[in-house]
Structure prediction request, 696 residues.
Amino acid sequence: MIDNPFYAPEFHGPYELFSLGDFVLEEGYTLRDCRLAYATFGELNEAKDNAILVTTWYSGTHQIMRDVYIGPGRALNPEEYFIVAINQIGNGLSSSPHNTDGTHAMAGFPRVRIGDDVRAQERLLRELFGIERLELVVGGSMGAQQTYEWAVRFPEKVKRAAPIAGTARNTPHDFIYTQALVETITSDPAFEGGWYEGSSGLRSALARHARIWSVMGFSTEFWKQERWRPLGFASADDFQVGFVDAYFAPMDPNDLLCMAWKWQRGDVSRHTEGDLAAALGRISAKTFVMPIDEDMFFPPRDCAAEQKLIPNSELRVIESTGGHLGLFGFEESFIPQIDRHLGELLSS
Amino acid sequence: MIDNPFYAPEFHGPYELFSLGDFVLEEGYTLRDCRLAYATFGELNEAKDNAILVTTWYSGTHQIMRDVYIGPGRALNPEEYFIVAINQIGNGLSSSPHNTDGTHAMAGFPRVRIGDDVRAQERLLRELFGIERLELVVGGSMGAQQTYEWAVRFPEKVKRAAPIAGTARNTPHDFIYTQALVETITSDPAFEGGWYEGSSGLRSALARHARIWSVMGFSTEFWKQERWRPLGFASADDFQVGFVDAYFAPMDPNDLLCMAWKWQRGDVSRHTEGDLAAALGRISAKTFVMPIDEDMFFPPRDCAAEQKLIPNSELRVIESTGGHLGLFGFEESFIPQIDRHLGELLSS
Prediction:
């Protein structure tokens, strides 16, 4: 356990904790008192058939999903749906290296897989709310990995699925990209094998980690067109310092590494002995596959190749010069596209 | 000066040295006994009108240009042309941080710009060979930066130009990408501000530098299609260890940093107070702008935007899943395309 004031309701808004008790992970370790942090929006109806699950991405929490994706008048409308946003394991609010005591604290935290998150989320929804079927599962990036995992693992429980800017089986290039992120942290002597005293000594490492996000997270046009200017920055470096570096600076390095390991290994074909077509063929959900056109590491062609393997699916490409991090919704045109596609999906 | 056996004829093939004497750099420092390493192929005719200049890229030397781009029966045919391949300053064969003595040794090496290389190359060609006009200037990546600089700075001396996979004015994204490369080295405590005893302590840093090349240097499809397999590797990591890491491992870190600084600031519009259209409008050379379709950091659209500003030019896109590092010619289809375009250019 390491104190980190960032992971608190004052930064992320209110949330609840659900304990799974001792939770056995796919890699064969038992996470004691495994907790999921979640937030709900709207009311569950009596038939319990208006539930939507919103998942989270690398470094993200329910906060950004709440602020950018959910709201009255939006596709994810809490006046119509009961929306549950569940924080992924390792994201700092749910059980994570930095907030775990004992054997599994910090560098001792066990390896977690996307499948662990999805099994844990399924239990939360069923045991806490009695939800047996979801109108929609939706998430971006690693949230898309969880969305695919839901649709393949629990086909009967997922009526619709909207994986945004992510893949069902992580690509080799994505693995290498994530590894470069990982090594900015693990190569720093202050990392001490994950047993650092505090994370302030790792601020430089986190900045290097952020700068690799700068290279891959946006698009070449984002930088060329100076799209950071309308966001209130005076130069590209000002934007990197004030937005990209600042975003990651308060985070716990081990927490990021926990998520990175999981991201690298997201793969629904683990259910079908490596046969991706067989895994995706299991999906019964109506699925909108929603890549971002300028995404440098989940390029549309990778997503399109998977979409072709999903029976009842459509490819819906989002246009955004923001690239992958367009997910943050900082470009005005982004959210209307999301809402249009999710609205169509929900009414189909 | 630091001993580095890699920078020797046994690894790069024979070359000559030309001394410029004391050479004043654009940044206002005097490089004493500035030397250019060069190699020639073919014979200069009496009229001295069959000369071609071949430039080098980041980390590259005349060796790869000789082995991959030049040869009998090729567009760059030494039976027809007098081909001079000149190593850029900082590449380890020409004057570079690691092979310089005194004040300018190692971290004391002054900042060098693309314009310095081009002025130095012009002197070599004129003073040593009496060459006043070039049939062609051609180079890839940073070699393309030098090619553009030649065509803008000395329009009357360049009859044809072929910048491959590079830009006339470096893009903001490219700057950020290169900075991420730089920081893998400068952030390592063993770097000691550039005053390391030997570079073996920086092997890990050089490997991280290499791994960022893995992320950006190829294409997402290169990794997905396992295009490393025909190159004789058993896994993606085997390829990274055996090809990418191994390529950079013997190099001098300060030499790489010298080239990186130069790359980041390549900009022909320095001649025209920042007006890129005016700079490129000066070019009288018949110019083929040759981006690689899958290049992640010199994407065709950046090159196409520049090509439109060059009076007598054509856009010739090279198709290569190899991405930027397709320049190495490891994909069978790459060199025939280069030869076809250069052949057409030379016969026009």
